[in-house]
Design goal:
The chain is an all-alpha fold. It has helices spanning 17-25, 64-67, 81-97, 104-117, 119-144. The protein is 48% helix and 0% strand. It is elongated.
Length: 145
Amino acid sequence: MTTRKKLGPPKGAGATADAALAVLGSRFSDPEPTPPAAAPPPAVRPTPAPAVSPRPVERRRKPATNREPEGMTRQTYYLSAAAAADLEDAVRRVRAATGGLVTKHQALGALIAAGAAQADEVARRLRAELATHLTNDADVSHTRV
């Protein structure tokens, strides 16, 4: 067993608990004072990336072989809900009539091709509807006066 170091009584007649604390507390203090801390360097804000890259980015369209079969394209058309429902019903009927041997895109393509072949008749019908509509509007405006 190790022997303890014996500490004698506080020296001097005026030794008090404060003096003992000062002696013992000095064991945990720094013997050399630390120099005052220098002012921290100014904060550097990161520079935001430019909104536009310095070089123009060339956007290349992927070859059709990656997403679309040869000779095929994807198109978007906006039409009334009723027209979309009629078209969907026509596709369903064509597929049912062929026993499901044609795909949906084949049936839709055939229907669009048949409609495109009748473009002149469709234009005549739309012009007649437009003329009727314009005539009715003109009659209404004359009766109000």
